[in-house]
Amino acid sequence: MSETPASTSPSRCEYSAAFLLLRLFLGLRTFLAGLEKFESKGTYSFANYYANMGRMASGITGASFLPLWATKNFAHSIGYLLLVLGAALLLGLKTRATLVLTGLVYVGLSFGLMAVQESEGVAWLGIHVIMIAGALVLVRHDRFALWPTKHD
Asked: Nearest to residue 93, comparing CAs of 104, 85, 105?
């Protein structure tokens, strides 16, 4: 008698677990990246945020071809975007759209780092973009969301 081997393809539960891990990691990473923009010397405030982001914008403009008006507008919005997108990922709010927007934010951050030739930072952000792409492949297995996206 020959036994038929058990199926080795992942179950729906495994895909759901894989997606949940990606969503939680990316949500935490994005939220905390936004939160750290408000920190200076162990305290968090809006004053710290605008001082930190002003320095970031000036630094990028000084080391690249990007104009100050562009870097300043991006820098002043990035912390808020990261907080909102990170919270939305953690809660599972319109996950597909949130992942796409988060990916675009990371691509924008990468562009700024590419402009100042900060290869290590670009590589780290590239890993985040790859993880977001993987999450987009698995998003149809999002079973633990407050406001799920419609699945194909």
From this structure: 85
E strands, 11-74, are: 39-40, 43-44
Q: What tens digit of pLDDT does each residue of 89-140 get?
A: 999 999 999 999 999 999 999 999 999 999 999 999 999 999 999 999 999 8
Asked whether residue 8 is domain-assigned, the answer is no
Domain count, the chain: 1
Neighbouring C-beta atoms of residue 27, cutoff 10 Å: 22
How does pLDDT run across 25-59, given as a tens digit for each residue?
999 999 999 999 999 999 999 999 999 999 999 99
Predicted structure pTM score: 0.87
Segments forming the whole domain that contains residue 48: 22-141
Kindly report the CA angle at 123 between 120 and 127, in degrees rounded to 5?
A: 145
User: Do the beta carbons of residue 81 and residue 134 sit within 8 Å?
Assistant: no
Q: Which residues is 147 bridged to in the sheet?
A: 93
The answer to whether residue 119 is domain-embedded is yes
- Residue 152 in any domain: the answer is no
In a domain? residue 5: no
Q: In this structure, what token pair is assigned to residue 30?
A: 């994005």
